[in-house]
């Protein structure tokens, strides 16, 4: 029997108009967008559906927008009783995975990620931190390089291990600049600066952790009904207490996405369904293992494609 994983995209996958077609057609989907507006007491759905793009891209808006859209899309799959054996999400997407696994309610999750975005924005003054994608470098060599630059007083570290040959680094603006320039000396093809508002998943995010911890204490946590593959450890987690601690660590630790996907495959997953806007994770999974089956679901025709493909196996 095939094992299925739902995977949820992170920040960067947002696009103006995401989820609108489904929201217009299905009141059950629209209910999530309406509920996000109520919980956050802002016109989030208007920003999601109509933009402008600059406003949607703000971390404080992008994070609840992506979670809302992903869970609204997930509700369509659940109406057809399509269930996952494992769930995982890339960075912010891990919160969508927690809703899918019943660890967090939608209301608590959308509020938590709104706050998370605020804390991440506040942690490092604008311009002091940055991120870059390094292509073609070996993980260990890049780890050693960033460690030596950090030791010289310019913090920089691996932030996202996305797939073979694609690693994102994060840290101080100077640290990321030095590591990007030196990356060719360890075999990297190139290093591209990313347009982000802060040095996410680096030690510079530690100031945000105490605020996030305080937010976590105000919401209800349940043990997971489906194992969640943690970004920090790339291991399945079901304990809510363990998950809470790992989500705090996730702020300033690398997202081990390649390891997470490899772990799910090792656990028997052969079908990945990317639930949410874009196809970023589908592209990464293909680069990790071409033998698995991958679906991206962001509109009704893609929902129906998954239903048709899986119907015989259900």
Provide the fold topology.
Layout: E1 3-8, H1 20-25, H2 27-40, H3 44-50, H4 53-57, H5 59-79, E2 86-89, H6 93-100, H7 106-123, E3 129-135, H8 139-151, E4 156-163, E5 166-172, H9 173-182, E6 190-193, H10 207-217, E7 228-229, E8 236-237, H11 240-252, H12 257-266, E9 269-275, H13 280-288, E10 293-297, H14 300-311
Parallel strand pairs: 1-2, 1-9, 9-10
Antiparallel strand pairs: 3-5, 3-6, 4-5, 7-8
Task: Give the structural class.
Answer: alpha/beta
Distance between the termini: 9 Å
User: Could you list the spans in which at least 5 consecutive residues all have pLDDT below 50?
Assistant: none
CATH architecture of the largest domain: 3-Layer(aba) Sandwich
Q: What is the average per-residue confidence, as pLDDT, rounded to a whole number? A: 96
What proportion strand?
A: 15-25%
Tally of discrete structural domains: 2
**Total number of beta strands:** 10
Q: Count helical runs.
A: 14
Work out the helicity level.
Answer: 40-55%
What name goes with the CATH superfamily of the largest domain?
Malonyl-Coenzyme A Acyl Carrier Protein, domain 2
CATH topology (fold) name of the largest domain: Malonyl-Coenzyme A Acyl Carrier Protein, domain 2
Spatial strand order of the main sheet: 2-1-9-10
- Sketch the topology as an H/E string, one letter per element: EHHHHHEHHEHEEHEHEEHHEHEH
Concise overview:
The protein is α/β, with parallel strands linked by helices. The protein has helices at residues 20-25, 27-40, 44-50, 53-57, 59-79, 93-100, 106-123, 139-151, 173-182, 207-217, 240-252, 257-266, 280-288, 300-311, and strands at residues 3-8, 86-89, 129-135, 156-163, 166-172, 190-193, 228-229, 236-237, 269-275, 293-297. The chain folds into two domains: 3-123 and 204-311, Malonyl-Coenzyme A Acyl Carrier Protein, domain 2 (3-Layer(aba) Sandwich); 129-196, 2-Layer Sandwich (Alpha-Beta Plaits), CATH 3.30.70.250.
